[in-house]
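Hi support team,

I've been running sequence recovery on a batch of backbones for a student project. Most finish fine, but this one hangs at about 90% for roughly twenty minutes before it completes. I'm not sure whether the input is malformed or the queue is just slow. I've pasted the structure tokens below so you can try to reproduce it. Let me know if you need the job ID as well.

Thanks,
M.K.
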């Protein structure tokens, strides 16, 4: 086969592959928490707008699914933003129960980890106490999870130092002025 024939075949296969790839990617992405929150905020306070927005969001959730699971606190927060009970149920039912629980578990684990990592290096006592509490809770929950062994070792080494620093106040001595 000549080089021009090879080039033609290559270009033809690329041209045929592009529409096929576009058809595969024709699905809308799952609905996000942000989309729901922004839509409810934009609906305003008029009951007819809120009802319409809730209905549209329910349809979107049923058609596209979601990429999150709501904790009890997040459900409550959406209700405060005028999410209807039907919308909350649609979001809850968009994931299979086992998948929903796995997402919630991962979110809780990540929250404890982030609270520890964010607060462990701060100087104020309250932040250190948050790091200690979240680290201890992380260790309690995930000690038997081999994938968390390195994180647990880090926390076990760090927590005693944090506890000592909370018990021993840091003294700041005023600097002395030199007399000339």
């Amino acid at each position: 086969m000549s080089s021009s024939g090879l080039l033609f075949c290559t270009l033809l296969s690329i041209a045929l592959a592009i529409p096929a790839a576009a058809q595969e990617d024709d699905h809308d992405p799952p609905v996000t928490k942000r989309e729901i929150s922004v839509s409810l905020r934009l609906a305003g306070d008029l009951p007819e707008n809120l009802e319409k927005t809730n209905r549209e969001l329910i349809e979107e959730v049923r058609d596209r699914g979601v990429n999150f699971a709501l904790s009890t606190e997040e459900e409550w927060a959406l209700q405060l933003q005028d999410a209807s009970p039907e919308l909350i149920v649609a979001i809850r039912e968009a994931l299979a129960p086992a998948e929903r629980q796995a997402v919630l578990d991962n979110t809780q684990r990540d929250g404890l980890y982030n609270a520890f990592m964010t607060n462990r290096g701060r100087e104020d006592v309250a932040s250190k106490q948050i790091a200690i509490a979240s680290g201890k809770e992380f260790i309690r929950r995930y000690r038997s999870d081999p994938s968390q062994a390195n994180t647990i070792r880090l926390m076990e080494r760090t927590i005693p130092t944090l506890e000592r620093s909370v018990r021993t106040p840091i003294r700041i001595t005023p600097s002395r002025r030199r007399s000339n």
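--
Follow-up from support: It reproduced on our side and the slowdown came from queue contention, not your input. The radius of gyration is 27 Å. No action needed from you.
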